Amino acid sequence: MAQKPSIPKGTRDFNPSEIAKRNYIFDIIKKNFQTYGFQPIETPSFENSDTLLGKYGEEGDRLIFKILNSGDFISKVDDATYADKNSNSIAPKITEKALRYDLTVPFARYVVMHQNELDFPFKRYQIQPVWRADRPQKGRFREFFQCDADVVGSDSLLQEVELIQLYDAVFSDLKLEGATIKMNNRKILAGIAEVIGAKDLLIDFTVALDKLDKIGEDGVKKEMLAKGISGEAIEKASPLFLPQSTNEEQLERLDALLKDSEEGKKGLEELRFILETIAVLGLQSANLSIDVTLARGLNYYTGAIFEVAAPKGVIMGSIGGGGRYDDLTGIFGLKNVSGVGISFGLDRIYLVLEDLNLFPEAINQSLQVLCVNFGDNEAMAALKLVSQLRKAGVKADIYPSSAKMQKQMKYANNRNVPYVILIGEQELNNNSFIVKNMKEGSQQEYSLDNVYQFVTYLS
């Protein structure tokens, strides 16, 4: 019996229509990356395990896909380790590589390895797939593309301002109005942890806080207690759980909460500068909002952090995120190189555009013109015409066999072809061709000696 075909959970096949829509998003993102002066790089789909592990926190590390060593890897595990059945002990002996979890850590590794070839500040963009052993659900996949833009070698807050503008420019070009760029600062979170007496539990504090929109206030408090954060400390942090208010009101609330923390006040200054600068420059279609509960669980963020929410009314997780990392390259031996970057969540942006019907109507039009095949002589004339149209940049084709007219027209309709060309015996004698407008049902005759007239009409 033949095996029933299947694909792993959390992965997808893409049909031509889906590819066209994804490329539409890719093209707009890439155009804006280049407009803002970012340069493209690519890194391998898999890295050495020690490059990735320990960079994303305990939860992130569990989601990294590890690659088994080739050959008889089990024979290299000693009997005692094997008998212990502890995956953490066995893993280093049987796997040395892993699929990349994101593009940022590989980028840091790239910068360190190529530091003598780069001009700093170095602005790079990268559009490649990443893999996470996550639980699949709507908008969350195990294999997906990330579209990243990062700047390394500058600690200027103007970079944060520019990345907010970049988000706004892309969403405006996609006609995705009303997206909210949520912003916080890791120094503020560190300051809060300090003033509530949980400085040594900063990671546990931020990881729990970052889940507020998923598990609610009670769930976050329960997790904090489980991680050893006292009830008294949680009570001191209660302003974080108040309903979101205006940016000005949140700045005042943070001023009061962080009055005894130098680090917290530094983060507040950075936040205020970015907000004031954006207020002067303005945004086209996005909103910029402080979210004091935004933590982003990745350990390498040290300053501003961003997360983008879809327009109101669309139920979807974040469609972008990023932040400042002051010394990510330091883990690979290059100290004091600050960086900041953002990522666009292609797959979720796709779902949002689909939900809001924002893809252009003609996006599925992979073919502009189809020539009907009436037989050998007519087909030869059609082939010559198709060649001329293709040279003029028109997406044109000829049906490969002289099948029944009904079948050929059905094919044209299924391919969403707007124009069908007819060259029959009479048209051969007249040295002409007939163009049928499939939407209107009208027909127009053109001379085969003046194909440019039809091309001009198409454009």
Automatic annotation (TrEMBL):
Name of the top EC class for this enzyme: ligase
Keyword Cytoplasm among UniProt keywords: yes
GO BP of this protein: histidyl-tRNA aminoacylation
CDD domains from the UniProt entry: HisRS-like_core, HisRS_anticodon
Major location (coarse): cytoplasm
Keywords annotated in UniProt: Aminoacyl-tRNA synthetase, ATP-binding, Cytoplasm, Ligase, Nucleotide-binding, Protein biosynthesis
InterPro entries attached to this UniProt entry: aa-tRNA-synth_II, aa-tRNA-synth_II/BPL/LPL, Anticodon-bd, Anticodon-bd_dom_sf, His-tRNA-ligase, HisRS-like_core, HisRS/HisZ, HisRS_anticodon
EC numbers: 6.1.1.21
Reaction equations catalysed: tRNA(His) + L-histidine + ATP = L-histidyl-tRNA(His) + AMP + diphosphate + H(+)
NCBIfam families in the cross-refs: hisS
Complex formation: Homodimer.
Protein name: Histidine--tRNA ligase
Source organism: Maribacter spongiicola
Gene: hisS
